[in-house]
Amino acid sequence: MELRCRMRTTKCQLLVTSLCVMLLGLSIATLSTVAHYGHRFTLISNVSLDSNAYKVIHHSAFYFGICLSMTLILAALLSSAATVRESLCLTAMGFFCFALAFCGLIPAACWRYTHSTEVEDSMMDVYDFVYEEVRRNTSSFRRHELTAIHEAFLCCGKHSPFGDTTDVENKTCPPDQLHSEGQDCLQEIQDFLKKHMDFVFSLLGIAIGFTVYGMFLTSFLWFSIHFSSNLYRKGKYTLRER
């Protein structure tokens, strides 16, 4: 009786956890799609050279995010089905998906912690490259790319310590940003990415917590179903004909 009571409590907790994990999976998929196809990210990716690390990070983050979100959603669906049907097989599969997601989340969180500025640095390197190309040759096609970056980030060049503007700013900055002393682009890019990456890191931390809790609940449910089925069979006898 006590085992069945604990089992019902675990099933309720697992259903709630599965719902939260599914929402997390959808959030990660949405964030990955926005980061991959968003105007600012796409613009920098198209401008960057093959030697720059940003393009690799841009595509890798998208595919990793989609795979991770699919794993989390699958874990949530399997756990919900296992809870309703009390299936040992589905419970084990749900635990495996939670464990697989956990194995992907830990390296991602560690990479974000150990390479905290790599994304920002690579993105600012792209801007520096385009800016210097335009400064050396204002007739270059890079001028249109620099103008697009200024319009996308609502910024205006790189501020000089003397406070004056160069021909690059005069020809590529939006008029409202130029006359109102618009935000320095390097600072604007850094602030934009810092907010984005902080949100990603927070989402990874929440996902890690739910995957660990999901592994605990699915393992407990598996043992509960296993021992409960053994208790049902205990003391039952069948007569065989001689």
Shape: rod-shaped
Mean pLDDT: 83
Number of strands: 0
Number of helices: 9
SSE series: HHHHHHHHH
% residues in beta strands: under 5%
Distance between the termini: 37 Å
Question: Could you say which structural class the secondary elements and strand pairing correspond to?
Answer: mainly alpha
Stretches where pLDDT is under 50 for at least 5 consecutive residues are 231-237
The helix content is over 70%
Note the main sheet.
none
Q: Radius of gyration over alpha carbons?
A: 27 Å
Structure report:
The protein has helices at 2-37, 39-47, 54-85, 88-114, 118-136, 142-153, 167-172, 175-179, 185-233. By secondary structure, it is an all-alpha fold. Helix 1 packs antiparallel against helix 9 (185-233), helix 4 runs antiparallel to helix 9 (185-233) and helix 5 (118-136) crosses helix 6. The longest helix is centred in the last third of the chain and has 49 residues, at 185-233. It is rod-shaped and about 80 Å long.
